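$ run holo --ligand "zinc ion" --emit tokens
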Amino acid sequence: MRRLLLILPLLAPLAACMDIPQATQKTASRPASGTLSPRPAFRQCLSELGAQRASFTPLPDQYFGEGCSNIGTVRLSGLRSDTASLELSNLGPVTCSVATDFAGWARFGVDRAAEQILGSRVMRIETYGSYSCRNVAGTNRRSGHATANAIDVSAFVLEDGRRISVLDDWDGGTDAERRFLRVVHQSACKRFGTVLGPDYNSAHRNHFHLEADGASFCR
Ligand SMILES: [Zn+2]
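-- output --
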């Protein structure tokens, strides 16, 4: 009994001490998200995107494992054409690099081509999204979508109400609509590293895949 009484006062401080490493570990084991990427290249890219008068919010870096991540990404909520706002639909996180290429293409490649070829400005660009943790179809290689570095564009809605879609109008549209889609596909090739459309394969019959990977692959 005397021995137990001697030990008890020693246990109390020990138990208190044990709490400290546990608490520290809990803090340290939180995911490394919640902080914005500090990299200078990312900051530089954000300022370029701002200069294009895009509406966007920088997102925290996130690693999802198995080669999938959102590093240096933004949520792009709208763009500017020469004269108006350009809406975007269904777009998730995108890397800042693909966002800046996209902003330039939308204004100079798409909106101006629509005005010249179809006689109406573009109001909205519809997409099938950007981030998706997946491989290039039929390969074991990670897609540009696995790092949110690619955007799939499916259609263009004009101010006059017309909707030009890759699926319906690449082959089935009027002469002007078909020409418009080919012109914007070609102008995408000047800005993005990899551009894939309906002529590449049937997986791309309904969208343009636009990726900022520094390659020169235009199909
Ligand atoms: Zn794609």
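-- notes --
Residues 145, 150, 152, 209 surround zinc ion (CB under 6 Å).
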